[in-house]
């Protein structure tokens, strides 16, 4: 319950601050638009890195547990784990590429 309240509070704060970024005049927006884009890019990469790290931790944990339960299948489990880690890391790299393309 606490996590949901915290998440809702953070989302509300972001939604309250967002209109201020678009309420500037045309001249002021041209000078500060890069700063806001860089800030958004930083938050986007942080979220991608955080989600990727959580996913990679869960994949490694499940693979270790599977290899401990069935050592005979460790080769197949290891291959599936590496493939899963590649897909997770690719999402973070795509986020980085999008950030460099937009900023």
Helix share, percent: over 70%
Low-confidence stretches: none
Mean pLDDT equals: 84
How far apart are the first and last residues' alpha carbons, in Å? 37 Å
Shape: elongated
> What Rg do the Cα atoms give?
20 Å
What is the structural class?
Answer: mainly alpha
Order of helices and strands: HHH
Q: How many DSSP H or I helices?
A: 3
Which percent band covers the strand fraction?
A: under 5%
Major sheet, described briefly?
none
Number of strands: 0
Topology:
Blueprint: H1 2-22, H2 26-69, H3 74-102
Question: Overview of this structure, please?
Answer:
- Helix 2 packs antiparallel against helix 3.
- The chain has 103 residues and is mainly α.
- It has a domain at 58-103.
- The model has no long low-confidence stretch (mean pLDDT 84).
- The longest helix has 44 residues, at 26-69.
- The protein contains three helices and no strands.
- It is elongated.
List keywords for this structure.
3 helices, 103 residues, mainly alpha
């Amino acid at each position: 319950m606490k996590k949901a309240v915290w998440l809702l509070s953070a989302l509300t704060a972001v939604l309250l601050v967002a209109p201020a970024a678009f309420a500037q005049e045309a001249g002021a927006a041209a000078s500060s638009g890069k700063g806001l884009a860089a800030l958004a890019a930083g938050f986007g990469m942080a979220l991608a890195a955080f989600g990727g790290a959580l996913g990679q931790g869960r994949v490694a944990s499940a693979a270790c547990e599977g290899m401990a339960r069935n050592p005979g299948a460790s080769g197949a489990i290891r291959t599936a784990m590496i493939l899963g880690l590649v897909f997770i890391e690719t999402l973070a790299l795509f986020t980085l590429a999008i950030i460099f393309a937009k900023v």
